Amino acid sequence: ASNRIYRIAVIPGDGIGKETVPEGVRVLEAAAKKYGFELRPDHFDFASCDYYQRHGQMMPDDWKARIGGHDAIFFGAVGWPKVVPDHVSLWGSLILFRREFSQYVNLRPVRLMPGVPCPLVGRKPGDIDFYVVRENTEGEYSSVGGRMFQDTEREVVIQETVMSRTGVDRILKFAFDLAEARPKKHLTSATKSNGISITMPYWDERVEAMAKHYPGVRWDKYHIDILTANFVLHPDWFDVVVGSNLFGDILSDLGPACTGTIGIAPSGNINPERDFPSLFEPVHGSAPDIAGRGIANPIGQIWSAAMMLDHLGEPEAAAAIVRAIERVLAEQKLRTRDLGGAADTVACGKAVAEMLD
Ligand code: NAI
Ligand code: MG
């Protein structure tokens, strides 16, 4: 008997989430068999617009009790703007998970894969391989502020950035730990302390203090403007890039865009203390324009499954899934049509499961 038993809350959500999540689960089950751990998936129909249409809300009142005890959440995508406005569906589900489960790390790998045309000229697989670590709970995305003298000449709007020592230090610690565990041991901090003269110098100060605990990690910092330029011009310079909520948001879309397609990009919303389950999902949304046709690329979902296994303490199985993804992407007939291939969602998912070594 194995004590490597993982209870996973599986939530497909809307649109192509219903097509990609089963492929993720297929690959997870194949990995469990090969690597000798046990998966206990529980399937939930909430956090979807279908659920909203039946119940008038995105999730049941006791959602936290229903999934709070699981080891992780495996999520598809939420959103069906024709029936529920996006801010309602997003704030009624994903944002609640991130806040209430204290998933203060948003982690996105940026990696150029074989078979994916790179929009940056002359780059090949191996040239681009880094992580963006985004602070996911505070910073620029605060609810502190307000509007005064509305609809008059004196109209004033203010929104404050909130940086707490706890909030800044914990994201930096996660990023330095990650950098220390990687071969290059290199951390880059995104700042703007020349223009934003209170919070960003504070961020820099905390980076410097945290770096003292990691003598083996080489670190540098760039202002966000030149940093975005360097993502495009010198993506090979980076290993782990850490940023505040806003800067991390921008970098974590720009990074995957530099590697070709959002159809394959994965992400983790992580509570490193494991007080709550972490959530793993593809970067893409529910893609209403192609939903229901069985043609969605399942790789972003499957790669998210690999990140989840890494988090759960199964790094070998996780690495095997990423290798299998690389093999599948390298073969045109196994790729989905967004990558110029011929495979449908299920064929691509099955191919990854079969390629596991
Ligand atoms: P989207 O990512 O759903 O789609 C953008 C474009 O990329 C579409 O043309 C789509 O067909 C294509 N695409 C996306 N994923 C693909 C895949 N796996 N394979 C092949 N093609 C793929 O973004 P969009 O259209 O802005 O949003 C649609 C809905 O998804 C909205 O309701 C939005 O709020 C929601 N959304 C949810 C997210 C989440 O659950 N984390 C993230 C982003 C959007
Ligand atoms: Mg974004």
From TrEMBL:
Enzyme Commission number(s) of this protein: 1.1.1.83, 1.1.1.93, 4.1.1.73
UniProt key word Cell membrane: no
Catalytic activity: (2R,3R)-tartrate + H(+) = (R)-glycerate + CO2; tartrate + NAD(+) = 2-hydroxy-3-oxosuccinate + NADH + H(+); (2R,3S)-tartrate + NAD(+) = 2-hydroxy-3-oxosuccinate + NADH + H(+); (R)-malate + NAD(+) = pyruvate + CO2 + NADH
Occurrences of domain Isopropylmalate dehydrogenase-like (ranges): 7-352
UniProt keyword list: Manganese, Metal-binding, NAD, Oxidoreductase
Family: Belongs to the isocitrate and isopropylmalate dehydrogenases family.
PANTHER family: D-MALATE DEHYDROGENASE [DECARBOXYLATING]
Function: Has multiple catalytic activities. Apart from catalyzing the oxidation of (+)-tartrate to oxaloglycolate, also converts meso-tartrate to D-glycerate and catalyzes the oxidative decarboxylation of D-malate to pyruvate.
Protein name: D-malate dehydrogenase [decarboxylating]
